[in-house]
């Protein structure tokens, strides 16, 4: 039992007043509206709150706000560590909020009793309910009556009622959403996933086969009263009966909202040499009851612009129906009765064409086209061209309609929007995640192997292109992709102003987060401090941190790091001669989380609260968690090292899939998909039995054979990934297996004669323990660079000494001695550890030792190591503008830049400032 578990009720009551977490809009101002509600996470002090019902949300005035609260993670003593917070739709959001214990902040009515809202099965749902499910939800009662969301289940499906929108979800079959209705009026129906595949990569291949997503299970994950979440799982079924492309769709509804957030994830389980996905989309049918001139189409262009058209236009004609008629049609309002129209337009209207279909295509990041046609057997007519569409379409009439938007639309090209059947009784609105008019998806490996048949050849080639190639390993089978869509039901064609708000909400959803000060006070997620420019030396380091962040934010657009599989990732290394990133050079291309840019960006957001950094980090988390990790197949649970293609490298390792890169996003956003990504790894220790991560360079390769009772597990990149996995599972679900393996291996590391300097320990897969008799000395410069520093810092503070004896001392020894002199290493270890120094990244572990031991001499040595600089980037970071004709377009050039240095140098800066900032030399 930990010390915290012995806290008395009186102690806990005294500490409850400490719960006061300020929450801000990351863009520093509230949105104009909050049409779909908001979801976030906030930290709670240890040992203070045992149930979310003890918490409440208040606005900036202290008035209670209707909110749903549930635990995202718990402390070892069972108290709430992170709380999920769900807000309903709001017309005038507050400028800020606070998470409090009600008695300490307001005399208002205490929160309503928390009721269970665990995941429940409807049809064949995932049996992992209960402990793994969202645990609870509660409503904070304010002075005004507020809308609630209710969920009803029956054998045939689920019904969600937000108070403004009713959604019917069938339990099985080829339909995701049966109907959407407002005030009893159905405005959309038949929401489906559609796809097509062909066996050749040529565009418009005649053998294209079409498919529809078939639902296998429907699960209620949250049932209100403010936020409801329904999870739908299934596979695409083609006309020939093939079942493939497993998908998960979550529908998220907020109280009072007419918006649904649709989060769609799928796993690629095809054969890259035979399957070329030629389309993937989400389609809804829209009933059309009004006359063609009262039916309306809206498409988002660039920079907030909107195309406004009617199925039968009454403007620009030879005869004018009158200003009132024209104004009504342009506004999307019912036109005056036809018998009031001027100049006999009503009689002549039969000769005005009705337009049946519109098509918007965004096949690259900088150009879209819009076309329309009268019938499917007549040609398309050009409407407009532009740069970057907002990715939102509307079809409906004066009695209701549907809007469909895709966040990251132009960034995730090739995308598209189709409106069809607008001149019939039932039209359709399709959002294409992969446009059917684009080249089919080609996931084959990008070269033929170049004759690299042996490990010797592959290591030799690695020495020139940095690409770790192995035949058959450049396989995309098992990677995934997630999209976030807005489904918006309207009781009538919306005004331009309202539609502009909804498009903006899709393009950049508003985000709430605890303030940096509140996050820092909570002491979560590693060692970092708030920005401090109180001295010239501190100011220089802060300026360098900001300059690197600004540079990467700008590089995404300058270098067009966009596209279906690429959006969100960063590049690894720069080519100063070509003034480009090394997009085509083996292992120097896409970064795939190499040396922890994810941790760099998330830590930077924690301390600064910068909105652009949050969105950069969130996109990176979405990408790396899905695309760079295998979710099915022979390498399930492993990620892929950096390469020209995200799945191309033969190094498949836990250091890329580690939850150390996902926990920040989950805790700050309460995102269910990110939670899934972490929990699916809970048995990832099994991967060491099937694939040795160091098989090509293992010193004992001639004698080593993976055995269940003696698997070689590195105590750096390998164990840090396992530890992050077990910690995430334990704190999120309470899984005792993960807890025991985490605490057990921590204890074993403490018991090893050389602790972390053992380098690799032998792991028993069945017991989850290390063989503590192994006595050897070795270390790698990579050991700390994939989350080990951050996870060990957390574990030392989180776990009581008696639960993992010796671990804190073993970690402190490693931090103190890695950059120690050869004499110090020999004296204590019996030999030098042999790891390359890499001074700047390792300055942060020496800083940790200096801080823990209170030793100014170690702090001085840590700063000396820090100022040695990075692997390539020595001294100050500099960039210069390069102009045509020497480059395609003006770009910011950074000749010495590696993302390795940017990430590790920034992490070292932030951690050294937090731990030994008072020892920072001025010169």
UniProtKB/TrEMBL annotation:
Pfam family, one: PcRGLX_2nd
Residue ranges occupied by any PcRGLX/YetA-like central beta-sandwich domain in the UniProt entry: 149-500
Annotated stretches, region: Disordered: 1-46
PcRGLX/YetA-like C-terminal alpha/alpha toroid domain location: 509-920
Composition-biased stretches (Basic and acidic residues): 7-27
Domain PcRGLX/YetA-like N-terminal RIFT barrel: 21-99
Name the UniProt record assigns to this protein: Tat pathway signal sequence domain protein
